[in-house]
Write a structure and sequence with these properties.
The complex is a heterodimer of chains A (114) and B (113).
Chain A (H helix, E strand, L loop, with lengths): L3 E3 L3 E4 L5 E7 L5 E8 L3 E10 L2 E4 L6 E7 L2 E6 L8 E8 L9 E2 L3 E5 L1
Chain B lengths: L1 E4 L4 E5 L4 E3 L2 E4 L3 E8 L5 E7 L5 E3 L5 E5 L4 E6 L8 E9 L2 E6 L3 E6 L1
Parallel strand pairs in B: 2-12
Antiparallel strand pairs in B: 1-4, 3-9, 5-6, 5-10, 7-8, 8-9, 10-11, 10-12
The chains are: A mainly beta (114), B mainly beta (113).
Chain lengths: 114, 113
């Protein structure tokens, strides 16, 4: 059974802390994505990566950075967490190519910043 | 640029009644269209997709969607819903040569017993 796993289901952090969200996929996919999901706003792309050490900004990259040192692992970093980054974070992966490939999602990490 | 509009944020429907969840898109190039479903406390999973060919696509659990190019729509339908269909449904659009997919804001389907 193919899988995308995320390191935590729930996370509580304090304002100003550095936060790491980890995502691992076992499908040997080239593409990996980080989204945040907020009520009424749907999914918004933060960053995506199409290869190891390669990354591109999505629609809302401010306040975030990413790291992809290995093909199966894609990390989202909040350099200095703020309360407006309280959200559900979803990781996804897909095969390379155009926008016709199915994305496979992890279960999500619900982050609360106090 | 591409975008997706899901006008209905919530759709309540009685069990065994039909349902339609609306999705309209805009894109300057040819498109690929998807419906994803998110059950409570889970990530999204693909329900069905249109890439090319027949404009009517079906899922294994009785949902269907029809690609209508003239109306730029990809509405999702089911003739008879079950309690287990209660979930949030996301329409998404992708385009060739562009690896990102744009998601709509989602429609919560609530099936009432």
């Amino acid at each position: 059974d193919v899988k995308v796993t995320q390191s935590s289901r729930y996370l509580v952090k304090r304002t100003g802390e550095k936060v790491f969200l980890e995502c691992v996929q076992d499908m040997d996919h080239e593409n990996m994505f980080w989204y945040r999901q907020d009520p009424g706003l749907g999914l918004r792309l933060i960053y995506f990566s199409y290869d190891v050490k390669m990354k591109e900004k999505g629609d809302i990259p401010e306040g975030y950075s990413v790291s992809r040192e290995k093909k199966e692992r894609f990390s989202l970093i909040l350099e200095s967490a703020s309360t407006n980054q309280t959200s559900m974070y979803l990781c996804a992966s897909s095969r390379p190519g155009g926008g016709y490939n199915e994305q496979f999602f992890g279960p999500g990490t619900r982050l609360t910043v106090l | 640029a591409q975008s997706v509009t899901q006008l209905d944020s919530q759709v309540p429907v009685f069990e065994e009644a039909p349902v339609e969840l609306r999705c309209n898109y805009s894109s300057s190039v040819s498109v690929y269209l998807f419906w994803y479903v998110q059950y409570p406390n889970q990530g999204l999973q693909l329900l069905l997709k249109y890439l090319s060919g027949s404009t009517l696509v079906e899922s294994i659990n009785g949902f269907e969607a029809e690609f209508n190019k003239s109306q730029t729509s990809f509405h999702l339908r089911k003739p008879s819903v079950h309690i287990s269909d209660t979930a949030e449904y996301f329409c998404a659009v992708g385009s060739g040569g562009y690896q990102k997919v744009t998601f709509g804001t989602g429609t919560k389907l609530q099936v009432i017993p």
